[in-house]
Amino acid sequence: MRRVDVVTMDKIVSLCKRRGFVFPSSEIYGGLGSSYDYGHYGVLLKNNVKDQWWRAMLRERDDIVALDSAIIQHPETWRASGHVASFTDPLVDCRTCKLRFRADKLEDAQCGRKPSKHPGETPECDLTEARDFNLLFETTIGPVKDEGSVAFLRPETAQGIFLNFRHYLQFARKKPPFGIAQIGKSFRNEITTGNFIFRTREFEQMEMEYFVPPAEAEKWFTHWLDERRGWYLKLGIRDDHLRLRPHDHEELSHYSSATSDVEYLFPIGWQELEGIANRGDFDLTQHAKHSGQKLEYVDTASGERYIPHVIEPAAGVDRCVLAFLADAYEEDEIEGEQRTVLRLHPLLAPVKVAVLPLVRRDGQPELAREAYEQLRGHVQAEYDEGGAIGRRYRRQDEIGTPWAVTIDGQSLEDRTVTLRDRDSLKQVRLPIDGLGEELARRLREPWQSPKQD
Amino acid sequence: MRRVDVVTMDKIVSLCKRRGFVFPSSEIYGGLGSSYDYGHYGVLLKNNVKDQWWRAMLRERDDIVALDSAIIQHPETWRASGHVASFTDPLVDCRTCKLRFRADKLEDAQCGRKPSKHPGETPECDLTEARDFNLLFETTIGPVKDEGSVAFLRPETAQGIFLNFRHYLQFARKKPPFGIAQIGKSFRNEITTGNFIFRTREFEQMEMEYFVPPAEAEKWFTHWLDERRGWYLKLGIRDDHLRLRPHDHEELSHYSSATSDVEYLFPIGWQELEGIANRGDFDLTQHAKHSGQKLEYVDTASGERYIPHVIEPAAGVDRCVLAFLADAYEEDEIEGEQRTVLRLHPLLAPVKVAVLPLVRRDGQPELAREAYEQLRGHVQAEYDEGGAIGRRYRRQDEIGTPWAVTIDGQSLEDRTVTLRDRDSLKQVRLPIDGLGEELARRLREPWQSPKQD
């Protein structure tokens, strides 16, 4: 697979910083390990990814509704879910280098004196027995730190959905199968982070809990495997860079009877992009027990009542962004000059169109501004008059802008412009007037991916 | 002002819960004081508010770029900003009722034995001297709780912008005046919360820092007062429910030479919706000092260098949502029946169009589904075939849906539908085909507010 050699994590990190997609967080203070801030184009790209997820969940179906629950939920939530008791990593301390490592990931440990996978075998490292450390970020509500005021930052958005399940039966008049979808930040106090935005302590999730009659759980599990895989493909991910990997028996969480990961072939290898789990009735049952409330569906007509089973597609926003960037990243040559180009799906591209006067005189900037004003009423547009036209094209290619509109001498005579395609590099002449509608129309059309392996 | 009598906080809270806009958070566990979850229509409304803010900041101007920085920044950030030292509330304890109150807000205190405004004057309350309590939520990064691993949840998004200022000079090739805009969650461990989503410990902000040459600060301060006021008006807020209130000298923060609040006439009275501050060079100077980095603008052509001054419009997303809801809330009478209607600006309305077959037979549901499939390709749409048509209209009115499309007998003959307007209640007949484009076009038009005082 040729591309894996071309795209490296270093190249992506470098482009992200150079072009304003992602910066190391708190950099002027020396950074804060594995924490990142999204710059201008990163925000636009990430917002587009989230928009497309909402679109697939809410706009293109009518069995799913939205939720945005608080990051700090009642602490009992995390006792019921099992997180307080068992959301842990086994950690070991090294008595020599004074560092701490995940006992099950010693081979990934980063340390001057790299601890051996087998404690005691190397003289440099002197590891303690593994102990369990909880991954919940803890804080206190109210001005006094006492037992009663301890709260947690949620480690997943999912539980907020189960807590609100009853409300949705009422106001949304929903009966299973139906889903509740949520996008939001989650926090896990992990010791092993890394690989850029792939694994960070603070991250954003897109989770949907799909409530079904128990007998239909398997059918809907398969449905969601297909749906979610299709979502990535439709947004341009290469078919052979995407796979479904079922968890084997030992890997399965205690609450799940089946889980498959959607994996993407990152520059660091196949890694989880999204997990799709059949959670059974574990969550509703647990919260019913801990709250003393009935969390079940009652069919008022038939009198039938049951605790729905739950299928959960849970994706990471940051991982999606990384996968879309990695998959879009290409280097090619134009007229002897090397070019880096992000072949992002136009719907995901941070900027849809750049408006460029060929030269900075003869009325071209004025007409270009006019075209720009029109275009930005329809799509995210950028105006750029600085520097040679080739360099301006390169800059737009690097941020993945699918179209560039160039205003030249002829434009002033007949109000036409050239529309340059990022991928085919073809230029066609089109009238300025109506161009905004034309691009909006093209955005609605299915996309023919130009990516090659 | 008649409306203030009609719209009460109770009515809004009740509608929000009944119709799925906002629920008390963690309710099955008895709630978590002043914490709320947004339900389906609340998410859609809130997303629309944020979209309109992004639109005003990014799409309609080209001097502002976006950022999404981490919630947990390097702790030095909050020493530099002054939050660690002085982001405090003065609190008093009552020795009798064992509760704790803000010393400066005793008149708002909620307690069985309400403490007097003047400690010592009533026999029931026995208040301690006021002590300062810091409002930063604290947590620890990594598995060990020690001094070095303490971190804070950001109390405002603004500081993340100052930390990234240098990056933006580079990649975005910006020179002052330019702005960096951000939307995200912030956390303040306040003891006095309340008034529904008006003041909560966890809340969402829309902040923009606008960097200007020092001599132009006053001019841009005025510019942003006008711009931000205009934003609310354009989105339908009543002119006489909105005012600018300049802070007097005692109110001003130590870093600000001028601040004006955009205030809205909530059912609880005039309250801050957004603060617009001239922060001078306070923040960049502080971070330069604490980081040892130069945070200044250098004009490579002229050699001119200076620390830009900053104008900051800082709005609360949740407060905006509450204001838009309160301002939209009306009760009227249709054919002798009372109706609650949200006269939301169509751009803000959670659902743009409802598709309703008049009856559930004769092929009407099938044609209605066809219309629905077309419409949802263009705008957020809802399909509803259950119950009497009048009741279905009422339900859409209550969630603020501006248009309802009804499929009736004639529709099956000539493929026309009636389009009902939420506000005028007028119905016009239009062809099904092209209706999606027509509604998308109407959404782009300026809105004539039907609200009355």
What key phrases describe this protein's structure?
homodimer, 453 residues, alpha+beta, seven-stranded mixed sheet, five-stranded mixed sheet, 14 helices, 23 strands, 30% helix
Topology of this protein?
Two copies of one chain form a homodimer.
Chain A: H1 2-6, H2 9-18, E1 22-24, E2 36-38, H3 40-59, E3 64-67, H4 76-80, H5 83-86, E4 88-93, E5 100-102, E6 131-134, E7 137-140, E8 150-153, H6 158-163, H7 165-171, E9 178-187, E10 202-212, H8 217-234, E11 242-246, E12 258-266, E13 269-280, H9 282-291, E14 297-298, E15 305-306, E16 309-316, H10 317-328, E17 329-334, E18 337-342, E19 353-357, H11 364-375, E20 381-383, H12 389-399, E21 403-407, H13 409-414, E22 416-421, E23 427-431, H14 435-444
Parallel strand pairs in A: 3-9, 19-20, 19-21
Antiparallel strand pairs in A: 1-2, 4-5, 4-6, 7-8, 9-10, 10-16, 11-12, 12-13, 13-16, 14-15, 17-18, 21-22, 22-23
Helix pairs in contact in A: 3-10
Any overview of this molecule?
Two copies of one chain form a homodimer. Chain A is built from 14 helices and 23 strands. The first copy, chain A, has helices at residues 2-6, 9-18, 40-59, 76-80, 83-86, 158-163, 165-171, 217-234, 282-291, 317-328, 364-375, 389-399, 409-414, 435-444; strands at residues 22-24, 36-38, 64-67, 88-93, 100-102, 131-134, 137-140, 150-153, 178-187, 202-212, 242-246, 258-266, 269-280, 297-298, 305-306, 309-316, 329-334, 337-342, 353-357, 381-383, 403-407, 416-421, 427-431. In chain A, the strands form seven sheets. The first copy, chain A, has a seven-stranded mixed β-sheet with strand order 3-9-10-16-13-12-11. The mean pLDDT of chain A is 92. At the A-B interface, β2, α3, β3, β7 and α7 of A face β2, α3, β3, β7 and α7 of B.
